[in-house]
Design goal:
Blueprint: H1 2-34, H2 36-41, H3 45-54, H4 70-79, H5 85-117, E1 120-123, E2 126-129, E3 136-138, E4 144-147, H6 151-154, H7 157-172, H8 175-188, H9 193-217, H10 222-234, E5 245-246, H11 253-259, H12 267-299, E6 301-310, E7 319-321, E8 324-325, E9 336-340, E10 345-349, E11 352-360, E12 366-375, E13 378-381, E14 384-388, E15 392-397, E16 404-412
Parallel strand pairs: 2-4
Antiparallel strand pairs: 1-2, 3-4, 3-5, 6-9, 6-16, 7-10, 8-9, 10-11, 11-12, 12-13, 12-14, 15-16
Length: about 425
């Protein structure tokens, strides 16, 4: 159970890291050529590839199937190694503790933000906070535009209208739900620094997209908008409210002001951008499915011929615990186990027991044989062998009457 969970987490972390890296490289060109809104929408690729990594390999749609290079499949296998059961359980516990701690920290920060805001007094379409919190759009199901108590004194009427319009765009687009999803990704993948970098960049693109939407409606008020941004930059910044959308933020104010100078893309360019984004999303989804399917296909099923010797008696009886067994070969009873990659089987004799798990190697014709050797209930050794298809790999523990030998010859099944 723990091994499967860790393998799944690492696989999803790998593909989402690749998607985040791609978007970090492409966000600036997308902003320049097709506008900030499309660059912000491109972050939907991250949950898309995460969903593709979670799908069963055999459920991939053929229309999106593509041949992934073997090197990429090998990278995925290498990044999702077979953890021994005890190690996997410890890793799963550490991940769960980290995810829970991250979630509790964010919940505490959220409530601390609401406490700092204090009682809210409604004034038309906005709410005045008792403290200097805001401007911000607050809430998921019943969002509110919250402004500081000195909102009217700090900003001119024209600036106030633009700020309210900005927060109104956040509410109309349900950006708080996007922030919630991003925050949950951070909690689940707290161990992945790229996820935290990606969420920060996504939030920045969110603000730039919102600025661009307001400027399309108020194209003649860029200077006033920039002055309002500068006033907010000089004021206090609200920390810790992960899902709310803040006019004041840690995003570079200079970059936001520079983006106000960009010309809004025309209809043709926006349409071309949507087509490119759709192709990019489809390609990322299909590539993830293909790598996932290629990993499963490369893992495959193996036939393992066994030779077991316990103590000084070469004819000592032994027992095999496995799901399937092979047939006689050359009229001789050759013990042969048929097993799937990653699925353990056991061999026991004279008080010894070996638990073996086969995994594909980094090279095409190699396999890893992860072995746990027990004498009674005591774990004696955990050797891991790298073997080639069709060649014998041997594990031996002890000497003389206390020795245990297990030799395995692995052959891939078609």
């Amino acid at each position: 159970m723990g091994s499967d969970l860790i393998s799944l987490l690492l696989r999803v972390a790998l593909v989402t890291s690749a998607a985040v890296t791609l978007l970090l490289l492409m966000r600036k060109p997308l902003q320049r050529q097709f506008g900030a809104a499309l660059a912000y929408a491109a972050w939907l690729i991250v949950p898309l590839v995460a969903a593709a990594a979670l799908l069963p390999a055999q459920a991939r749609p053929q229309v999106l199937s593509m041949q992934a290079p073997y090197a990429v499949q090998a990278l995925v296998r290498q990044a999702t190694p077979a953890a021994l059961p005890a190690q996997a359980n410890y890793l799963a516990f550490a991940w769960a503790a980290g995810a829970l701690a991250s979630l509790l920290w964010l919940v505490a920060a959220h409530h601390a933000f609401l406490r700092r805001a204090g009682p809210l007094a409604r004034q038309g379409a906005i709410y005045l906070s008792a403290a200097g919190i805001g401007p911000a759009s607050v809430g998921l199901l019943r969002p509110k535009i919250v402004v500081p108590h000195d909102f009217a004194e700090r900003y001119t009427p024209a600036e106030q209208a633009l700020i309210v319009a900005h927060e109104g765009v956040h509410i109309a687009r349900r950006d708080a739900f996007a922030n919630l999803a991003a925050t949950l990704f951070q909690c689940l993948f707290w161990f992945n620094p790229l996820m935290h970098v990606g969420v920060r960049a996504m939030r920045q693109d969110q603000e730039l997209a919102c600025d661009a939407a307001v400027m399309r409606r108020y194209s003649g008020q860029r200077r006033i908008y920039a002055e309002a941004l500068l006033k907010s930059h000089a004021g206090p910044i609200a920390f810790g409210a992960a899902i709310h959308c803040h006019w004041q933020s840690l995003h570079p104010t200079k970059e936001r002001i520079m983006h106000l100078q960009h010309t809004t893309p025309g209809k043709v360019r926006r349409a071309a951008g949507r087509i490119i984004l759709a192709l990019l999303a489809a390609g990322s989804f299909g590539a993830t499915l293909s790598v996932h399917a290629g990993q499963a296909q490369a893992a495959g099923t193996y036939s393992i011929a066994l030779f077991v010797k316990a103590g000084s008696n070469p004819d000592a009886p032994f027992q095999i615990e496995a799901d399937a067994f092979g047939k006689r070969e050359n009229d001789l009873a050759v013990p042969r186990v048929v097993t799937e990659a990653g699925k353990p089987f056991s061999v026991s004799s004279e008080g010894w027991r070996a638990d073996v798990t086969v995994r594909p190697g980094n090279a095409k014709n190699d396999v890893w044989l992860a072995t746990r050797l027990f004498k009674g209930k005591e774990l004696v050794a955990t050797p891991t062998l790298l073997a080639r298809h069709g060649e014998r790999a041997t594990v031996k523990v002890g000497e003389g009457a206390q020795a245990f030998t297990l030799a395995m010859t692995v052959t891939p099944q078609p």
